[in-house]
Design brief:
By secondary structure, this protein is mainly alpha-helical. It is built from two helices and no strands. The longest helix has about 50 residues.
Length: about 120
Amino acid sequence: MVMKGDSRSLPLPENASAVQKSDFSDAAVRQKLDDIKDRIKREIRKELKIKEGAENLRKVTTDKKSLAYVDNILKKSNKKLEELHHKLQELNAHIAVSDPEDVTGINVFHDHMVY
């Protein structure tokens, strides 16, 4: 016996609509997470360039004042890179927990990350 208002009695298009709406929501969330991940990766690439430049400056710097300034830049860059790697690692872990079957290409170990 099917009672009026029972979701099993709904015609197929209405049921399909509810499923599509749910999938859209999941897809929107997934897209948002991917966008955040891409932004973090761009920030990491930018910071790696800053670090590389600071390391090059350090090699050619001769006076102590400039050397201290460059060392400070390098220290800040390393700290920011560490923070960005940590954010990316947390995001990858969140994505893996949210969708454990879709972990292909995700490597949460920042020592082996590909940008």
